[in-house]
Every structure is written in structure tokens, then in C-alpha cells.
Protein 1
Amino acid sequence: MEHFVSSEPFDPYSIEALTPEQEHYYMASQWKLMWWKFRRHRVAVISGAFLLVLYASILICEFLAPYDLHTRHVDFIYAPPQSVHLFDKGSLVGPFVYGTNYRLDMQNLQRNYSENTEKIYRIGLFCSGDTYDFWGQLKGDLHLMCVEEGGTLFLLGTDRLGRDILSRMIYGARISLTIGLFGVAFSFVLGMTIGGLAGYYGGMVDMVVQRMIEILQSFPQIPLWMALSAVLPVTWSPLLIYFGITVILAILDWTGLARAVRSKLLSLREEDYCMAAQLMGAKPSRIIGRHLMPGFMSHLIATATLAIPTMILGETALSFLGLGLRPPMTSWGVLLNEAQNISVVALYPWLILPVVPVVLVILAFSFFGDGLRDAADPYK
């Protein structure tokens, strides 16, 4: 049988055997292929949308919170969560809350609150309430929802100073969520730099880095966090404490990423394109940053995403133990610090509600990171 070999230059766009769908797939970039695979992971997509909404909400905490962060209601200390009603005596009124009756039980030394169904306070949207400084710059008093004058809106109850827990949880999200991002960004730089040097040069550099990583990983994590955070001076401002805790979490979390980078570079540095770059006189920094890192950047992003929950849990644990962020800064860990006394929790169980967003965010990041990791894996 005769064979025909065309002498014309090969043009991939002129192949008639490929359908438009096939051509669209084969010519897609690596990031587009990752996105197509990620969209098939429904749980990861839902988790990503949930995290996107949370991070968007921290930009407008002042508007979303019913009350200001430090507003105290001295007549409603340890008030229980209020219920929102739509109907009163069989007729539609709209969203409203009943008034509150207060009585001090002197026998048990406990505050008792009950609904006063004779008083109705409607809940409004986009209304004026407590004044606030938007991001510390602009004065404002517009809130997403608030109650009529004379009423209270404590959807999750109040704490020992009469402060609204829901408002403080919304404000605390700004600290708890961003400390994870800043911590991972810092550890990402450390892990790529140290792991990249160890993987590219090998030899003595690799041995020193590996021994250093093993020493850091041999320490119990929480006691080491506590020891380092206790070193922070008590005279520091809340902002310096915030960055200090971020640096501590990053210093102790870069080891896993560094080993992932090191193992990848050890295999990729022997490839032909890396050798060609060396022969052409490229500097090691350019070879690592321009030729080696992009080859597995998707895996690094997935790894960093899975590291964010560790940062959030670390800050929550330190603040819960009183060694992390300190008032007046507010995070979910600081809010949980008030729930250390078991007797207080038994009487006022709504004080442990700040643990709910911590659990939801950790699960969302875990599902989102799993989806990214599967999408970045070329063998799946």
C-alpha cells in the first residue's frame, strides 16, 4: 500500500479531523483546564462561593453589623438571643421582635429575660443606627438592618458587658479571616525561597535546610506558639500584636511548603529546558522563578489554600488562651475567650456561638483546597 507524506509545514489549526469542541479543549491553557476540572467539583465550588461572600463581607462590616463593635447595653447584660417574628395574634406584621422583660433571680443570682408580647418593634432595612468610623476614616450610621427606637435586636444574645455578639462576630471576621491570608502569604514566600534554594542547589544547602525543618517540626506546635506569643511585649499596640501573631504563625508553617517545593525542584532541575537555560547563562534566580516555579505553581496554590485553616485555628487557639490578639481588637478567638468558664457557658450557652463560623470556614477551606488540588493534578 502506498503512503503519502506531505512536504508542507505542519499547521495544527488546519487539521480537519478535529471538531471545534476538540480543538477548543486541546488548545486550552493549563489554567483553563484547571478551571474546567474545578467546576465539576460541586462542593468545592459552593465552598469557594461561601468564602468569597465572607471575604467580601469584611469590607463592609460596619454596614452589616446591627450595632457598633463597642456599643454597650448595660440593661441587657447576658441577654439571650431574640427571635424574629412575622405574625402577631394571627395577623401579618412583618419582621419584628417583641420587647423584653428583665428580672433578677436573687436566689440563683441569675438574670432572667422574657418576651413582652405587648410591645412590638419592627425591623427595618437600610436604616440609621449606631454611628461608626468606616475603616477608621469616614463617619456613617447606615446599617443593613436595625430595630425601631426603644427596642433591641440581639439575634445571638449579648455578653458580660451587654455587647451584641452578632455584631462582634461580624467585626471579628475581619481579623480572623485576614490573619490567615497574611500568614499564608508570608509563609508562601519563605517556603518558596528556602525550599527553592534547597531543591536547586542540593548538597550542603539542602542538608542544612532539611535539618532546620526537622528541628522546627519536632517541637509541639501549640506550646511553641504559646512560647513565642508570650515573648511579644504587652506594651505593643494592638496593630503590632496583630502583625506579630501573623509572623509567628507564618514562621512555624512554612516547612511543609518548603519541602514540597524542594522535592519538585530536585526532579525538575535535571530537565533539558533547565539545562539549556544554565548553558545560556541564566542566573539561578531566573531559572527558579521563570522556568521551574511556573511548572507547579498550581500545586503550590492548592497547598497554600489548605494551609489557611491552620493559620485561622492557630490564631483562634492563641486568642482563646489569652496569648494572641488582645482587646480592643476583636477576633473569633477573642470572643471565645469569654467562654472559658464552664459555669458561664452552662448559664449562657450562646457565648460559644463564635465557634460556628470557625468550623464553617475551616470546612469550606478544606473542601475548596481539595477541589483545587484535584484540579491541579494532571493525573486525575
Note: The longest strand covers residues 110-134.
Protein 2
Amino acid sequence: MRKILLTLFALSLMALLIACGDQIEEPPTAVPETDVVPATNTPEPPPAATATATPLPLPPVVETTAPATATPTAEPEPEGVSLFTPADFGDDRSPFTGELVDDPDLLNRRPIAIKLSNSPAVHTRPQSGLNDADFVYEHTTEGGITRFTAIFYTHTPPRVGPIRSARLIDVELPAMYDAALAYSGASVGVNQRLNAADFSGRILRTNEPGYYRTGEAKPFEHTFYARPEQFWETMEGRGQNRRPETGTMLSFTSAPPEGGQPGSVGRIDYNWTLVEWRYNEEDGRYYRWTDGVPHLDGNTLDQVNAANVILISPLHVQDPSICEESRDGVCLHLSVQIQIWGSGSGLVLRDGQVYEVRWHREARNDTLTFTDSAGNPFPLQIGNSWVQLIPSWLRGPVSVE
């Protein structure tokens, strides 16, 4: 089987020299209002943000009210479905998955982005709700660990968690999906950015209904969960529970497009953790292994799976104004800004094949969209998607075979 080795420096905008970071020998102390996990075996840091791309401007937000509640359908899609225009979606398909829903009122509610921990494995896995998310973004934080931001819209899991603190990527993702944001806290600098964001009125703070502690016998920071149904009730009460409005739209097809290569296994070695996606021909989905173990959803104990796995490497830089970890008054890790705007190269795994694409986000309220080598819209498979955000400075291999 053909094996494709990805050179991360070819996937993003990099021509940056990176100095090696010192390995931490003892646990660092978190800065105020941050709940970070002590780091070990720290990989090379991203470069400092001395000359970076300009963030997309923040447009004004106009809020309206719309009803909520409904249940997505589980019926299989017919063959030959193509969704490229608003008319193709009609009034009963999700703009983020292309899936049919039983009740169109479901599409009139606000998406919710929820921050989920992924470290340490013994305290965070299996996370609850992952298989109900329309999109999940996995990214590195300081110390090389990864964390998730899950976008919930067409499914309503009974609980989601463990919920952890936000990072700078969460200044971008709610704008991309016109979503609310739920998280457990943030460093002072990240909180300032979130409070100044165009979606600040949609932030679901930790004193809102829906959050709760499980009372489990594990570290306190890993016992924070939520009932998302109550989040939608809060959005309704604020007059902000409405259909999302984004600047761009995704495309979907039920049949695989031409031009793919064999892509039944995708591996991303984040140094701290090894992620592997394996294609299952029986149901046409990719299943996730983490460090050689099936990654499960804590609500059902089903293995985490996706219709699409997307690998992109936006520029990762350190923000010199925000410290995420410090010791003895010295900053050990600056906050990492993932510049998920503009465009860049990437790969999409769907239907057991891998496709070279370009990702695009030209305006702040645009979702990520994709084009093929000819510049035509590249369609995702109908269903949920995982986006693996891969740092340009990652030392571990990334491969698809």
C-alpha cells in the first residue's frame, strides 16, 4: 500500500528557525486563572510572534431569537447526494455535516463550542460527548499536550466533559461557527481576548446553569462537566438562540470525488500522544486510536469515529503578551496562537482515500472551506469531521497510508 509521508513545513507558511526549549525537570506553577497540567518532555516551542499575520477584523454582531430542540435522524443517506448550494441543503440539512434532521427547528439553534481536556489520559478519557459533535478540533497547548474544542449543533449529548480551560484558538472557533463558548477558565491574557471578542455575549461562564461537578475520586479539575441542553436554554433566555450565520458554506457529497489516493490509516505523532485514524470499510468511517488504545466516548463507550479527518498546519506562534505557565516568576510557556486564517495546504481523509486540498478562511466569520488543485470546492463526506491542527514545529512524524 502506498505510504505518503507529510512534511509539515510544506503544509504551512514556515521559514522560521526554532530554538530548542529546555526540558522541565519539576512541575511548573500555573499563572492565575489558568488550570494547566504540569508538562514533561517538552517539545521545541513555536517561534515568538515577532512578525505574524494580522488577525481577521471583528465585525459587529446582530443577535436574534429563534426556537430550539429537535432530534437528528439516524437513517442512512441515499447514494448520489451532492450539496454545493443553499438550495441543495434545503431547510432540513445541517450546514456543518450535510446530514438530514427530523425537525428543521433543530437548525434554528445556536452552535455551542465546548472545551475538553485530553490530558492526563487516566483522568480525562473517555471524554463524554465526542461522537455527538459536528466538528472537533484537536490542537497542542503548552508542554506539548493536546486539547479539544468540540462544536455541538445537530446532536444533544446528555453530558459533555471533562471541560477545561480555553486557549487562543478559542478566540477564532466560535466566530467561525457563529457559536457560543463553554470552558472552565483561562489565563488572564486569553480571558481578556475572549471578553473583547465579537461573541463575548455568548460566553457561557462557569456560574451558568448546566455546569456541574461529578464528585468522582480524581483530581478536582477533571470533574467539571456540563449538560448542554441547559446551555441552549440559557441562549434562549438571552435572546441569542438562533440559526448560525457564517460567511462561507461547506460542500458535501455521498460519493467520493475523483483524484484520491489510498488513505485508510492516518497517524499524527504529537510527541506527547500518538493519534491514529483507521478506516472501516463496513460503515465508511474512520475510528480513532490514541496511544495504541481505542479512544472511546464516555457517554456510550462507543469508539470515537468520524466521516472526515482533516489534517492542516496553520502557522503556530507564541504570543509574547500572554503567559500560560510560570515558575518562580519566570514564564515557562507563552500562549500559542494558531493562525487559522488565510489559506494553506492540507489533507482530507474520507471514504478510505486521501486528498490534497487547500483550506481557506478569508473573513473572520467564515468557516473553513476546501478546494481541490483546480480551485473547485472540495466536498466532505456527509457526517461529522475531526480537524487535526498540526504545529509546523512538530518533531513527530505524520503519515497517511
Note: The mean pLDDT is 85.
Protein 3
Amino acid sequence: MSLGHMKRSIRKTNPDKERARQEKYYTASQWSLMWRKLIKHRLALISFIILAILYTGAIFAGFLAPYGLGDFSGSYSNAPPSKIRFVHEGEFIGPFVYPYEIAYDEFWTKVFVENTETPYPIRFFVKGSPYKILGLIESNVHLFGVDNSNLQPGKDDVRVMLFGADQLGRDLFSRILIGSQVSLTVPLLGTAISFVLAVIIGGISGYYGGIVDTVIQRIIEVLSSFPTLPLWMALSAAIPPGISVTQVFIAITIIMSLLSWPRLARTVRSRFLSLREEDFVLAARLAGVSDFKIIIKHLVPGFMSYLIVNLTLGIPNMILGETAMSFLGLGMRAPATSWGVLLQETQSVSNIANHPWKLIPVLFVGISVLAFNFLGDGLRDAADPYK
């Protein structure tokens, strides 16, 4: 084929491809257009990847964590993060740790010193404490752990503490992973419940108006007027003592959802007030469609993208709320764990100064909150039809 013939062929096919691309763009659904805009938002895309990693870690926390919640060692009380080494006496032997020995400095402060005589290899897919994935699949295999086969009799097991240990000698890395199951799940479930309440109550208020709207708005104003902290304390005091961890989890989820639905309900109401007089709503009424179907099938899908954006931006507030409740002792309590429970040991300034690694859960809270905020900003830009 000659060069001139190739150029004529390119001129002929390119307009066809361009026309097909434009037709595909203009006939695409709203969700497709949102997705195309979202993937161009780099910060939102990075945030989505970070959140996917965090939630994957929460799902497989039992497998990724080298120890369970009940595993502790008094010898590792307030131990610093373990140093992962690869070379022993000039020879590469793979990842390993040295055991800690307790010593005291000139101020009689306890310090941990590595005993470099014997290395303890880090093995993968080792057996340890039993756990359940998603509460269904039982297993006792952990991603990694220390091989204690050459441990001398009478000595405590050597441990690998990536983020150090807490006051009771429990691995902070394992507790952060397991605690993420509560700190990342409660906001999602609470947001889902508040979403249903907001759509139903806000939709009724905006669709019917009149005395119904007035009563609902006064109720919302009363709920919004209560200070957050005393309301948390009152609702958490209603949780009976001695109930199971699962029941506490459900109670905290309900509390968070009851505190967050009024704001979203007002957003739904305002949208319903502007949409209920549209021609398609009038046509549906004349066709004999019930009010419930008009709300669910015609009005709500019309601004579903806007609701999703508001939900995404509301999840960080719930993460901070659950963390604050558990930090104050109003939410999850030991032996259960969450990021807020882990931060209870940071209430003392001296504790933080001597053991700064106990602030690591703050990083996970901050990263998850920022990731949701950036993702919400990206969704808001993607849902804007004028951008």
C-alpha cells in the first residue's frame, strides 16, 4: 500500500471513529459520565485505592495480623517496634528479629535491648490464634510470624511487633488491623441506616409539604439543637452493661445513624420541593402511580448521585464520631478494640513522650478521613454537570 493511499485511508476512518466516540459520549448514562470524570481526578482515584487497601485489610485482618486480641506477653509491655533485619554476623539469612531483653538506664527507666546472639526467623503462613474471616471462615493461619522452634526452655516467645506493643504487651499492629473492622464498618452501616431514614423522612416532608413538613422540620430542629457530646453520653448510657461485643457493635451503629440522619433529610427535602412540581411527576400522578413509587422510582434516582456525594462526605464524620466515643469510653470497650479504644492509652502526656508509637492509630484515622474527603470531593466534581 502506498503512502498516499494510507493517508487517504486515515482521513476516511478517523472521522468515523471520532463520530462514534462522540455518539458514545452523548448517549452515555449519568453514572458512566461520572465514572469518566472521577478517574481523571487523581487525588480521588488515589484515595479510592487507599480505602480499598484499608477495607481489604479489615476483611482479612485475622490473616494479616500475626497475633489475636487475646495474645499478650508481659515481657513485651510497652515494647518499641521490632527491627526487621536480614543479615546476621555478615551472613544474609532472610528476615528475622532479635529477642528483647529488659534493662534500665541511669534514671532507672525500663529500656529494651536486643540480644544479638540468636536470630529468630520470620516465617510466612504460620499457625497461630484462631479467627474467622467475615465471621464465617475459620482458620488459624497467619501471614507471618516468628519461628520459636529454637527457643530455650522457660523463656517467653520471641515476637515481631511492627508497631510496638501496648501496656499489656499486645501487638499494636494486630490490634490496629482488627480494630479497623469496627472503626471502618460502623460508619458504613451507620451511614446506610441514616441514608434510609433521611430518604424516607426527608422525602415525605418535601413531597407532601404542609403540616407534615412543618412537624418533621420541627423534630429535626429539636434533634439538631442537642449538643453532640451529652447526646452521645445519654444514648451510650442506654446500652445495658454486660452485653456481648456484637450487641455493643449494633448499638453503636444505631446511635451513630440516629445522630446523622437529620442533616441529610433536609437535603432530600430541599430536592423534593424543587422536583415535585416537575412535569414527569404530574404525568406519573395522572397515570395513577402511587406516591411511594413516585418517590422511589422517579424522584430519588433524579439526584442519587448528589446523595452519594453527601454520603461519602458524611462518612468521615462518623469515623471521627466512633473514634471519639470509644476514646471517651462511651463506645467499644475492652476486650473489644477499635481505633478509639487504642487511643485511650494516649491520654497521658508522659505515656506519649515515652512511647510515641502508641499514636500510630491516629495516622490511620487521619488517612481514612482524608481519603473519604478527597473521594467525596472527586465525586462532587464528577457529579457536577457544568464541569
Note: Residues 190 and 257 are 4 Å apart (CA to CA).
Protein 4
Amino acid sequence: MLDKIKRRFNWTNASVLTLLPIAAFLSVSFYIYYQGIHWMDVGILVSLYTLIGLAVTGGYHRYYAHRAYDCHPIVQLFFLTFGAAALENSVLCWASDHRRHHRYVDHDEDPYSITKGFFWAHMGWVFFDHHTSNDARFENAHDLKKDKLVPWQHKYYLPLAVLFGFGVPFLLGWAVGRPWGGLIWGGLIRQFLTHHTTFLINSAAHWFGKRPYSRQNTARDSWWLAIFSFGEGFHNFHHAFPSDYRNGIRWYHWDPTKWAIRSLSWIKLSWDLRKTPKQSIIQSIERAKSAAQSAIDRYTDPLQLQQRGEKT
């Protein structure tokens, strides 16, 4: 059982999350005024947004936090370097927090519990340091601490974040004659988008949508969130079956992360892709339907309404 959680305001995180969007939109406004928008700028933005986004969803989330599959060290190195560029902390911190979120979802020990409000779940929790009084922050990540590459990324997280988050877009821009365009669009604007599409899974995916697989927590499936988050919007399924490498299980579900992991398996760069048995999914759907009907009955059955002293 975790000791009482202590929270201390983190001025560094608060400053980054507050000042970075201001810097991004001021710089892009001036850049567009003087330079206009070139297709190369947009190309760098989309390319890096995709690569870094997949490093978070496929790497930080489905590989490191949930071990939903296994992959080659080259793929792991990509996850750790481009994942650092998301400026969402080292994978050791990220995965530990996320595992705690799943274990204590919707309770006080959940770092980004939606029960504390939409803003808290979205980004307010990042304004604080979360630790236990017994200094056991990574007690749920012993496997990651034993990994060959994870401790290296944790130690050098900040220089890796700066190099891949801002150095790479600057160099890509420089290669096409638009270095500041690369930095502004591929660095600052991309960073803002990366942050808030990730944050929306902590907030909106526990606020909007349906719960077809489980009604035991607030996680919901939102197809429109999946579009912005590389498939992470099918959050109710994920909380019901967190070790599944897929989030969207239907052929028409938008889940580029699933497709990327599966594609890597075709060239032997990923393997042991974990899938929930179909029968388990069907049973989960039936239980969720039954729970939903029971909830409806409690509020519509005349006898129960009378017992509660309400009008029928």
C-alpha cells in the first residue's frame, strides 16, 4: 500500500507548459508574417509529429509501460530517443506513473485521476512532483530499471530531449534551407501538439465517449480522439485489456500504432504481439451491457424509486 502522497509544486514543469505555447505561437506568427508557410515547414511538422507520437504510443506506452509485445534493440533505441523529444519525462518516470494510473484509476493514488477535475487530469497534475514518503517512486518498474537502455535514457533524458526535440527539426530545416522554419514548426509547434494530444488521453478519454468493454472505471472509447493520438482514443478497451498491443480492435478502427507494431513484426523487428482472446472480449462486452442495464433499472424501476422516496 502506498504511503500518503506528497505534492510539491514543480516550477520547471509549470514554466515549460506555460511559456512554451506562448513562444510557439508568437514565433510562428512572426515567421508566417515574414516568411509565409512553405510545404517543407508543414512536412517537417507532420513527419516529426508522427515519429515522436509513435515513439510515445508504441514505445513509452504499449512497449515499456505494458509490455504488450517485444522488439529489437534498434526499435527500442528509436523509442527512447524520439520518445524523449516529446518532453514528457524519461520512460522510467512515464511508465511508472502510467502503471500507477492503471492500478489506482479514479482513486487518489492515480497521478492524473479524472475525479480531481478535467484540468487536473489534462495537465494540472504535471505542475506537481508526485512521490511517496518512502521514496518508492519506481517500485512498480523493476523490470525497466534492469533494462540495458532505460537507465541510460533516464540519465541522459534532458540532452536527448533537447537534441531530438529541437536539434533534429533545426537540422532538417537547415537541410532544406529553412532552419528556423524547421525549429519553429518541427520543434515548438510540434511540441505543443504532442503535449496536448497526449494530455487529452488522460482527460478527454476519461470524460467523453462510450464504455462498451468495462464500466468499472471512467475510461471511454472516443473515435475522434484516436485520430489525433495514433489510436489511443479507444481507451475503454485499453483499460479493460491493457496488455493487448492493440487499442482499436476492429479493422476500421484508426490505430496507426497497432499497424506500425504489426508491420515491424513482418520484418522480424517485433514479436510476441499480445492479443486478448476473442471470447474474453465478448464476455467483457456482455458484462458491460449488463452493468449498464442494471444502472438504468436502478433509476427507472418504480419500486426502487419508491424505496428512495422519489416520484415514479
Note: Strands lie at 5-9, 70-71, 128-132, 270-271.
